[in-house]
Amino acid sequence: MYGRYTQDLGTFAKDEAARLRLQEGDTPRPRRPSELLEYTQGRCAPCRVCALQCQRFLISKVGEDWVFLILLGLVMALVSWAMDFAIATCLQAQKWMYGGLDTNVLLQYMAWVTYPTVLITFSAGFTQILAPQAVGSGIPEMKTILRGVVLKEYLTLKTFVAKVIGLTCALGSGMPLGKEGPFVHIASMCAALLSRFLSLFGGFYENEARNIEMLAAACAVGVGCCFAAPIGGVLFSIEVTSTFFAVRNYWRGFLAATFSAFIFRVLAVWNKDEETITALFKTRFRLDFPFDLQELPAFAVIGIASGFGGALFVYLNRKIVQFMRRQKTINRFLMKKRLLFPALVTLIISTLTFPPGFGQFMAGQLTQKDTLVTLFDNQTWAKQGLSDEFEYLGILEAWRHPRSNVFVTLVVFILMKFWMSALATTIPVPCGAFMPVFVIGAAFGRLVGESMAAWFPDGIHTESNTYRIVPGGYAVVGAAALSGAVTHTVSTAVIVFELTGQISHILPVMIAVILANAVAQSLQPSLYDSIIRIKKLPYLPELGWGHHEKYNVRVEDIMVRDIRYVTLNCRYRDLQQVLHSTKMKNLPLVESAESMILLGSIERAQVGALLSNQLSPQRRLLTLRQKVLSEDGHRLSDSSIRFQISTEASSGTPARPALRKPLKPALKRVPSSPADSPPAGATDHTGIALKSLFCANSTAEPTEEEMILGDKMTPAEILEWEEQQLDQLVDFSSAKIDPAPFQLVEHTSLHKTHTIFSLLGLDHAFVTSIGRLVGMVSLKELRKAIEGSVTAKGVKVRPPLASFRDSTASTSDADTTALRQLWDRHQHHPMPREASPGGDDDDDTPKGQ
Amino acid sequence: MYGRYTQDLGTFAKDEAARLRLQEGDTPRPRRPSELLEYTQGRCAPCRVCALQCQRFLISKVGEDWVFLILLGLVMALVSWAMDFAIATCLQAQKWMYGGLDTNVLLQYMAWVTYPTVLITFSAGFTQILAPQAVGSGIPEMKTILRGVVLKEYLTLKTFVAKVIGLTCALGSGMPLGKEGPFVHIASMCAALLSRFLSLFGGFYENEARNIEMLAAACAVGVGCCFAAPIGGVLFSIEVTSTFFAVRNYWRGFLAATFSAFIFRVLAVWNKDEETITALFKTRFRLDFPFDLQELPAFAVIGIASGFGGALFVYLNRKIVQFMRRQKTINRFLMKKRLLFPALVTLIISTLTFPPGFGQFMAGQLTQKDTLVTLFDNQTWAKQGLSDEFEYLGILEAWRHPRSNVFVTLVVFILMKFWMSALATTIPVPCGAFMPVFVIGAAFGRLVGESMAAWFPDGIHTESNTYRIVPGGYAVVGAAALSGAVTHTVSTAVIVFELTGQISHILPVMIAVILANAVAQSLQPSLYDSIIRIKKLPYLPELGWGHHEKYNVRVEDIMVRDIRYVTLNCRYRDLQQVLHSTKMKNLPLVESAESMILLGSIERAQVGALLSNQLSPQRRLLTLRQKVLSEDGHRLSDSSIRFQISTEASSGTPARPALRKPLKPALKRVPSSPADSPPAGATDHTGIALKSLFCANSTAEPTEEEMILGDKMTPAEILEWEEQQLDQLVDFSSAKIDPAPFQLVEHTSLHKTHTIFSLLGLDHAFVTSIGRLVGMVSLKELRKAIEGSVTAKGVKVRPPLASFRDSTASTSDADTTALRQLWDRHQHHPMPREASPGGDDDDDTPKGQ
């Protein structure tokens, strides 16, 4: 992010300033349309004047951030609500079908199994055809995009449509899939599309930095309106997508997420689902004595167990994906029949959950939402003393099995759902894993809670046995802990408060979530980081919990020393060699091979453009023509005129249009610049040459003349000409150079390097020593170093790196030596323009004698 | 932060690595103590071995982050609890005194007024004497410290004691003062002291970067255990102290704050204050229908009004301080009698709140805590239909006045408390403003709520009139909104949920807080920023809500062009001139005045050290001795030996000990380095010289010989000698140079510059153009630029800056030209070592003809 947009922003700012200055000129006299209106002195005239002014005011406000954020919130609330409605309808349809066929078990089974299979297969096929980028969670991609990496096609309308429809079908099938990840992606696409749409009115939507800010806000909106949890949404999105967060942008997320959650819940009220705005999964635990202090160890156990469970889930999920990819026969087969895998998985899962079959042991007929509602239930399910006569009412019925008790059902549910969820989230449809994990966590919590209730039937607090244990509270804790462990976030705690509408269990939830995080983070990466690695997206691993060893590794240990560079006075042949010998995207530009003073960095594409420009057919043509013309002996050579013009252009009034768009390949620049400034007087005697230049300007259609002239050169001649061209010194004046690439020093610690890379979103940095280029560090090296030392635990502090250190001399010397060399060079080879120092003797006396 | 610690960290890491390697060597044979124990084959031997191993394990764990965080949480919980206890006792004592004297109003008044006056005066005096740094909130200072600025004496034990005792007295007086700011400060001091204490065991506590991370966590702990609100505490501290937040450090805050809040509440349970862990100000609003959708406009009104109120509070607070400072007579008087102002303010405020006097109209006898409890009460106070017979019970009694109604009481309370709080927070005692503002906001919310309840006695929802309006909910919303407006934070919303233990009003609270923030942020800086400005701490203003214009200002508009620099081949005289002509703390080091290629930056102190070293009496002595010795003609001159040694040292085995401590003035280096390496054979013939060198090594006690020799030079000779020395070329090899100071480009937008400065905590950056130094931007310029364009609203985009732009040439050219110059220089003056390019003609043909 840092080095790349420097130039763009500059250009942008300049254009913007010019535009604003023009606007400024407009504003003092805005009477033009109203002046016109005064001629039509109708009755409506004042109204129309007013309407016009309103319109102008509105358009001027469209560019404001808050308008954008509120619009985004509104759109996302509508999208979210519509999707929820569609998903509910789908699930209702399945239930209805299943219920209607209760005369025949086989038919029932067919209906139960076919329905989700068709939906999932359709979803997979649809996404595959329309936009394969819509597959999966979307959070890993958003994390990458927010780091500044440009992923193509990830924020387009096509992907949006694919994701919305694919997700609706996938969730409508009743598979254990989540929607929070896809919602983040959908909200981001919404923001991208909205900003493109609004840029038709205002002008501020093209800015890169601003877009990133808006995308960050959009992620918050996505989570926020998925759970109707604005605060938790903002925090979750920050934890999941950012490494460093600008507190400045905090309010954006809050504004958009709050508005979105508000509209989302208002829609529910208007739809008569609810009487007023309440939480999604409202709980009704008692407030006066939510839990006993002595229950805290049980909550801690839930936290620690969830930590292990979360790590296991991530591991399982990754192993399934890797197994699919590595088994070549399976892989080849699946690549051919892409829709077979989703169909197969859905078939297995839905067969196992078939309520009259195995599903009766795991509450198979409940949807995810119903499961959560029952798990957060206020009552105690286990039979105990007084409440022996407790009847499972309504949907609670599902958890009871005549031949076993609720513990068996819960255990079976947890075990089955665990691998099912891990498997289901690998299906190539738009889906997340948050909600399934959340449900499993709630079930686990409930299990612990019911056990506690069975163990202490009258509550722990012996003095007053009025306060029973509330297993529902344990379910809340378990849900927060397991989802926190899988995603490595703490803010799931806030999400459960907002989801349940009760904050009375704050301390148990916080303790469990923190413990779960501590355990999970020390075992496995987060689910999203795991997917990032599987998908091989550019990423930077986090420094672990205890990262002391990072303070001991330094840049000099990990940097690449043998790097290719471009010198200021190199020849085109050197450029060619450099391009062939390295694949770096940014090449350092140094003053000379001796001094190695870093002047800037130049993009690979720019170097390529310089080269191809030098060897372009146009130039060859020109040379040829020049030769032909000089044979006539009557005219000045074209090339001199051409280069006079370009020299003039760069010193006096510059060729602005070309420089304004520095991203365009330099190829097009050379012909266009003389085309801009011909009227100086050159038209008189360079008629044909300029005409050909004009023609050459349209590179797409080579003129006949060009063809003829081009043909006149034999391949050998061309080769000779090219060799000759390659020996020329490079003219960098047309290339776009980043004048301040990011620099590190050899001493910089790995910890600091990591911080700087994530802060600024760098993908490479040059290592300098007193201005001299000595190496380069890219994301790859950093990644290796961090993972290398993260896996090697304990006392072994710098496992693969120590060898480097020993091979090089102590850096304190190196530093001094470098400075001294530079200094000596100055002493012995004063620059030609510098006054020869008269005091050399004074200096040499103490040194050289 | 960026440039400054680079070197330190490097050195630190190196030492650390060495230390660890030594440790590593130790660990494989840890049997030493147990081997010894085997001789004493007593019964306890296994126990003692075990204990020893445990001890060793514990000591190794002491360095872990989580141990530190838990210890911090524990300590802060204890401190917080003890202070709360003391404050409650103080307040109880006042109540008791006031209650016991109810026979005589005058005596009652005396007691009511004297008690707080004495406490506040003591607090002010105590703080003034022990540590004046403890005065005030502490959040502004912490914000500055977390930016990387070192404020002296702010984190010492003395300040800690002063703050704790001063705050206890101040809050015990019953004045409208808060404790959240001081708690942040206290927690930070706790962390600093704790890390210094723990560094006696582990070695990782000296690291600068880590300390900053720990301080950030400590701030969270401070807020968290002040309100028993871990989540809100973490978020509030982030919003208030950070500009960019590392998500990596998120868990630190949560862990410490949760543990702290947990212990804090557990202490309450053990003290039998509570039956179990609950919220501090628990509310009992109904859960099933917390509020009607149609009440939302009222909540929005609270938000907007709070926004204006918050801005007014900040303005009032600042104006009071400025008035005190500007009125010279007042100022002079107050400076003389420092304790008069606190006493006077306390006298006025306590007189006005005297319950039998004016206090009866503003619930004067209630403490802050009681006020909040009553304001968050579940019942409706205003008389309406059915509940006409409602009786004010217990402490609610205070709000009733026989001759007026509750509305009058509330309005008087709000108005009086508003200016009282604004005034009271200017008293020079440790105090914050959060809690008073929170109370005022709650009262305002209550007022609106009671009005709504009076307006719609049967609730708004006409279909079912079972749901009345809950004025307590309005109070919660008002409290969050006003405190959010004053501090410019959104997380006050989370704090109120945790304080009240209910989250049912989430949407009204969020809407009100966001609106309040929007209004307040567009009118005034936050209270903490306002204090930062008053105290003139180094700060960087935030970019406002709509900061479009920031994209149009560029570094070239705001940078200082005329900067002093040090060239690589300069003389000591130049250094002297530079030091005299500028006050910059970091001087750029450039290759030469012609090339201006930036090589690094050198600290002012280093330059000073170089100079004073060159002109040191030791060197003069040496010269003199050399002269004396060379007059003998029998020996080699000392200086040659000396310099041979130092040259050797810098090329071969270097003078490590000196280079390892680059912060020490170079002054001491020269004598110590020959002292390290005399046995080479120089002892033979440089007996006296070396002896004197050894003596010179102990600079504190000049030997007699030295005195004599020093006296031998006349002042004129000294002057001549110094002039001669100043003409020598500077030897930079002993100076500490930061080889990669932060660089910007002329194009960089103000927005990006601001981001980078706050991200990296810079206080200056050099502006380069293709490696050439062209200017410098420091915090001052940035501040000016941001505030200049923030105050000028609307269309006027770049008010004082436009002039700069027009005076300079277009930068696109400037860039190209600079490159061209550099390139030309290379063309025409090839470096002597470079092979003279044979293809020059090829290049010149198109260019020069």
Summarize the structure.
The first copy, chain A, has 849 residues and is mainly α.
Q: What does this protein structure show overall?
A:
Two copies of one chain form a homodimer. Chain A has a four-stranded mixed beta sheet with strand order 2-3-4-5. Chain A is mainly alpha-helical. In chain A, helix 18 packs antiparallel against helix 19 and helix 28 crosses helix 29. In chain A, strand 2, helix 23 and strand 3 form a beta-alpha-beta unit. Among the domains of chain A are: 213 residues, Clc chloride channel (Orthogonal Bundle); 210 residues, Clc chloride channel, CATH 1.10.3080; 158 residues, CBS-domain (Roll), CATH 3.10.580. The N terminus and C terminus of chain A are likely disordered. The first copy, chain A, has 36 helices and eight strands. Chain A is elongated. At the A-B interface, helix 1, helix 10, strand 1, helix 11 and helix 19 of A face helix 1, helix 10, strand 1, helix 11 and helix 19 of B.
How would you describe this structure in keywords?
homodimer; 849 residues; mainly alpha; Clc chloride channel; CBS-domain; four-stranded mixed sheet; three-stranded mixed sheet; 36 helices; 8 strands; 4% strand; disordered N terminus; Cl-channel_core (chains A, B)
